[in-house]
Specification:
The chain has 209 residues and is mostly helical. 74% of the residues lie in helices and 11% in strands. A two-stranded antiparallel ribbon has the order 1-2. Strand 1 and strand 2 form a beta hairpin. The chain is rod-shaped.
């Protein structure tokens, strides 16, 4: 479908310029879309690996907690872990990947230097509780990385979809419209030129007579 414009030389020149810009923009967006897809696929693979590792570790930790609860009893277990040895906060910054601002997260641990990860003495606790605490302590960085990668995947997917819509709009709507309108104006101008030439020849013929 052509654009509703006046078939003038000025309009033709303007449309040809817009067509060049649209074609160049389409190529850049297509390249961006391809690169985004590569990075997105890498992130999805990383996310899958991290998720499996975190789920396995959390499952094992939960098993140890259940065993510790059975051995120690609920009250003694809760009393043993009620006072943690460190406080953890979260720093969140951003980094740019292909114009997408993805999160960068890191733990900030506050506690006595060299302090034990176990918030209890070992006299009245079980080895299963020790194992559960250690597994949780070790899996926390992976859990944070998983959250970071999953959010990055979501943001990248949104950007891919936006880019895809722009690429399609240029490829299937704007560029064909510009081409069809340019063709229409060119034909109109050629038709006008032929009409003008015919009139001039008639005038010349009349003058000569």
């Amino acid at each position: 479908m052509k654009l509703n414009v006046n078939p003038t030389r000025m309009e033709l020149t303007r449309l040809k310029t817009r067509l060049k810009v649209a074609v160049r923009g389409h190529k850049l967006l297509k390249d961006k879309q391809d690169e985004l897809m590569k990075k997105f696929i890498d992130l999805v693979r990383k996310n899958d690996e991290l998720r499996r590792a975190v789920e396995d570790e959390l499952t094992e930790s939960l098993k140890d907690f259940m065993m510790a609860k059975a051995v120690m009893g609920t009250e003694m277990l809760e009393e043993a872990i009620i006072m943690p040895t460190e406080k953890i906060s979260l720093n969140v910054s951003k980094k740019n990947i292909m114009s997408v601002n993805v999160p960068v997260m890191e733990f900030v641990r506050e506690g006595k230097e060299g302090a034990s990860i176990y918030p209890y003495g070992f006299a009245q606790t079980s080895a299963e509780l020790d194992g559960a605490i250690k597994k949780l302590h070790n899996v926390l960085p992976q859990l944070l990385q998983l959250a970071e990668v999953e959010k990055s995947c979501q943001l990248m997917a949104d950007e891919i979809e936006k880019t895809r819509r722009r690429v399609n709009a240029l490829e299937y709507v704007m560029i064909p419209q510009f081409k069809e309108t340019i063709k229409y104006i060119t034909m109109k101008l050629e038709e006008n030129e032929r009409g003008t030439l015919t009139r001039l020849m008639k005038v010349k013929s009349m003058i000569q007579k």
